[in-house]
Design a protein that fits this description.
The protein is an all-alpha fold. The protein has 8 helices and no strands. About 0% of the residues are buried.
Length: about 160
């Protein structure tokens, strides 16, 4: 029996196959069968499973990104959307509300980033922003409600 080289073992791992195949033809045939079975299984996945898989893929990409060495130019994202790093920092740290143009730039940037990964919903940045505003407003009612209630009057009662 012919022993496997490192190159053969790496190729086997790449195809997701074990090392029991003695010929390239046999291995390629098995790889094709495996790929066909995977495609059939993927076609039968529910929407929920697809979303979970995409979220897991995103999580792994984020983890890989975080583990990359730090760039010399820390401000590459600000440059990507053509704003100053100071402005970006102010928005991120809630010292300044983002303008519509800022959110629109995020929409375009995200569409380009996710172009080859999955569909990116254009409205998501507005939804995130307004959801955060709504949550902040609702959670701080004790601070603003009493003051503003004095200014609200009904011209006629509703029965």
């Amino acid at each position: 029996m012919k022993s496997k080289t490192n190159k053969d073992l790496i190729a086997d791992a790449e195809y997701g196959l074990d090392s029991r195949y003695n010929s390239k033809k046999e291995r390629d045939s098995e790889a094709a069968s495996l790929m066909e079975a995977r495609l059939i299984r993927m076609k039968n996945l529910s929407k929920e499973h697809i979303i979970r898989a995409k979220l897991m893929q995103l999580k792994l990409k984020m983890k890989a990104y975080i583990e990359q060495p730090i760039y010399d130019d820390q401000n590459h994202f600000a440059q990507d959307i053509n704003i100053t790093p100071i402005r970006l920092s102010q928005v991120i740290n809630n010292h300044r509300d983002p303008k519509d143009e800022f959110i629109m730039k995020l929409m375009i940037h995200s569409e380009k980033v996710y172009e080859n990964i999955c569909e990116f919903q254009k409205e998501i940045w507005y939804q995130v922003y307004f959801h955060e505003k709504l949550c902040d407003t609702m959670s701080s009612q004790e601070e603003w409600r009493t003051k503003l209630e004095k200014d609200v009057k009904l011209s006629e009662a509703i029965d």
